């Protein structure tokens, strides 16, 4: 990532001011690199600059991506109200029923769960799952994103002490993760742990 950061930074320094879309793309990619390295402050700065460019150029798709990325950072920082408002903005720009919209719906579900609103979280998680199944079921019914949706719903039902419902959704997630990843993968290890916890529940 450090090499990529240097590359994107050097490229941005040499871009002419008229290359708005290219500048926004490099800024967003730079933000992704900083975020992967755990430098949320610099990532947020890049995403916010990208948002300004996309707003000036009326790029709705880009704005959807920017607001989603900003919401993800606020969520990671525990700033759930800010994350919620940014995710709603992202959803407003992501009107097409595609995987990007499903990702934002999923994020909204996670945010609502943290804010103590499990009913809204369930609604968002179900919408995300429905959209992912619609987009992926014929092409790849074992896509990991579908597994993520099942896992999130399983976690929600576990918190609500609906253990049978939680086990059902965790089991579906486990099938998908085990199909895609080795036993050592974190998603597989986590889902196996969640299933064991369900088995030990009263």
UniProtKB/TrEMBL annotation:
<dbReference type="InterPro" id="IPR019734">
    <property type="entry name" value="TPR_rpt"/>
</dbReference>
<dbReference type="Pfam" id="PF13181">
    <property type="entry name" value="TPR_8"/>
</dbReference>
<dbReference type="Pfam" id="PF13424">
    <property type="entry name" value="TPR_12"/>
</dbReference>
<keyword id="KW-0677">Repeat</keyword>
<keyword id="KW-0802">TPR repeat</keyword>
<dbReference type="InterPro" id="IPR011990">
    <property type="entry name" value="TPR-like_helical_dom_sf"/>
</dbReference>
<protein>
    <recommendedName>
        <fullName>Tetratricopeptide repeat protein</fullName>
    </recommendedName>
</protein>
